[in-house]
Please model this.
Amino acid sequence: MRVLVAASEVVGFAKTGGLADVAGSLPRALARRGIDCRIVMPLHGVCRRTGLAKPTDKVFEVPLGNRMLPCRIWQATLPGSQVPVMMLENDDLFGRDDPEFGRSLYQFSSTDGTKRDYPDNGERFAFFCHAILLAMKAIDWWPDVLHCNDWQTGLAPVYLREIYGKHPDPAVAAAWNRIRCLFSIHNIAYQGRFASGLVETAHLDWRLYNHHQLEFHESLSFLKAGIVFADRINTVSPTYAEEIKTPWYGRGMQGLLIERSGRLCGIVNGVDYGDWDPATDHRLPARYDAMSFDAGKSICKAALREKLGLTGGDEQPVVGMVARLVEQKGFDLMSDAASGFLAQGARLAILGEGDPWIRDMLVHLSNRFPGQVGLRFGFDEDIAHLIEAGSDMYLMPSLFEPSGLNQLYSLRYGTPPVVRGTGGLADTVTDTSPETVEAGTATGFVFQPYSSEAFRDAVLRAMALWRHHPAQWRRVVKNGMLQNWSWERSAADYHRLYSAMLVAE
Ligand code: ADP
Ligand code: GLC
Model:
């Protein structure tokens, strides 16, 4: 079976969040199952700077507006695998990211510090979607399944079915139409909406711009396009697959998803334990495992305190968090909730980058609790690993969470997660109660209402167990560390889904 995974970011080359982790780890796990898997992504500036990609002599042109834009294929290999990665070069569109100047993959910092989307994101990713198909043709490699991820790839199924699948030569059209298309929704809040004029710029037929296909509230939505034109749709946890069929979570897509629910399923993300395992993690000052973790965690905790300027010692619990600083992650609960648990002596360690209001709120909090709140703004993989290892508890009070990876990392790092019971968090964390401790299933602390009181109480519950019932705490830690959320399991689910797509359609 041949599978082409298309994504706008892939860990090791370019990353802003969990999508990159998935787009790197899933292909590796698919390859281990014997699938002939390749990846296609844009050649961002940061990809070029890794020095891992080399230009090839394959060049083609992509129509955009009234121009033909050149695209060269660059070639790399996914680290730790033989999986080929095709990177599509057009520097005007994709070469602009540079953290030093506040320019990331999709956004730039304006003079007042706020993050704004690049005004030409629609053109950039229309180009990418079209180029995905032209790249297959250029290298003459035809997948059985094209696996698209998130809005940035949403027009690829449209080009596949509406342009190439309708080629005047029936043999050519049939070759394109043999390709099945899976569209994975990692986050329905990002809908890739653009002014309708993009229909023409993208060389699509106006006929498709209607309420049943590309139009979404008087704009063109790439996400909707993916949902409508793919053969199957999945999202990254079973609970989120149900949630997005309801109005609040569905963000306007719920009707369409209900209509297409026979083709929609949920597959929870996995962890790449090659990158995320405290027993082998070379980013840490000490390593540890489920059989012996006290000494290792204590060394990591001391290093974390030092790195983030936290006062105190082993006797104060450190609660950690690594996240994009966006509304989704529950930051509007943080100030009130944290005041509650910081007053009880906790230390808080946060790494993130994103919205200025969240940054300001966190700085304000750290001024109110000097020495108790350690902050690092920016993207830093070493500190992300250190927070997972050196904290006693991990926070994920998300407003919504399609899957979430950090709670899975924290389970393996012996750092029980405190989570809101939504999406993938509900599917992967078992609340601690006398019954679940007894049954050996407790792995974390789950709260339901989206309120700072509920969040604070869950953290206080965790702190009370940590302080007063160390034996029980250790059982919770160990339960989590011994769980297996490896990609092997999720890759098997994707493999089954691909196979079903090939026979069913
Ligand atoms: P999301 O994709 O919504 O951001 P996930 O939990 O799925 O959330 O994945 C987030 C990933 O991005 C994790 O691997 C996390 O460690 C990483 N991450 C997020 N922010 C940062 C940061 N500032 N520095 C380093 N890694 C980060
Ligand atoms: C999204 C979601 C996150 C998920 C990630 C990878 O960014 O917010 O929950 O884990 O995609 O699927």
